[in-house]
Amino acid sequence: MQRIAQFFKVSFSQFEKGIRDCIPGIPEESIREIYEGISLPKRATRGSAGYDFFTPVSISLKPGETIKIPTGIRVKMEENWVLKLYPRSGLGFKYRLQLNNTVGIIDSDYYYSDNEGHIFSRITNDSNEGREVCLNRGDGFMQGIFLEYGITVDDEADGIRNGGFGSTG
User: Fold this and answer.
1) Nearest to 140 by CA among 61, 51, 74
2) What distance in Å separates the CA atoms of residue 10 and residue 40, rounded to the nearest whole number?
3) How far does the chain reach from its first CA to its final CA, in angstroms?
4) Domain boundaries, the chain
5) DSSP character string of the chain
6) What kind of fold does domain 5-148 have according to CATH?
7) Mean pLDDT throughout 136-160?
8) Could you tell me which of 32, 125, 119 has the C-alpha nearest to residue 87?
9) 73-121 tens-digit pLDDT
């Protein structure tokens, strides 16, 4: 098995900026506690392809509700690899919990952005059965799978990324 990446926490200041943007009104001492409690993504079993991402705070979503989650996580990976993010299978199956961009794409150069490559997720409870999604702090809600990719023979991309969603155009 190839070992091509490593997860890290973003700095406290980067996490504080992200959580204040996503969930206003949290006192600074609570933010510090939340930050200290962040767990790095991990696989549940040796045969798992996906790395589970965990909620830094408790979340309740009624049908149709959406929340943006600052994970506090960044990933450094080798070039020619991508981290693809999906809702955890059970949550998608039981509640139709969805990532708003359907599949998150974390490119290898995102790690070097001004925001430290902070991975955010916007999720929606798309239940058509009236079921509320309740996740406790530290529950897995999303999974990431590393995939190698190729480029075309005539590719000449030379741009430099600086930012997250939509930063390349």
Assistant:
1) 51
2) 11
3) 35
4) 5-148
5) ----EEEEEPPHHHHHHHHHHHSTT--HHHHHHHHHTPPPPB-SSTT--PEEEE-SS-EEE-TT-EEEEE--EEEEE-TTEEEEEEE-HHHHHHH-EEETTSSEEEEGGGGGSTTTT--EEEEEE--SS-PPEEE-TT-EEEEEEEEE----TT--------SSTTTT-
6) Deoxyuridine 5'-Triphosphate Nucleotidohydrolase; Chain A (2.70.40)
7) 94
8) 125
9) 999 999 999 999 999 988 888 888 999 999 999 999 999 999 999 999 9
110, two tokens: 């995102």
Residue length, the chain? 169
pLDDT in tens, 1-57: 899 999 999 999 999 999 999 998 899 889 999 999 999 999 999 999 999 999 999
pLDDT value at position 93? 87
Residue 160, pLDDT score = 79
Question: Which residue has 């509640």 as its token pair?
Answer: 95
Residue 164 pLDDT more than 90?
A: no
Rama region for 58: left / alpha / beta (φ>0; ψ in -120 to 50; rest)? beta
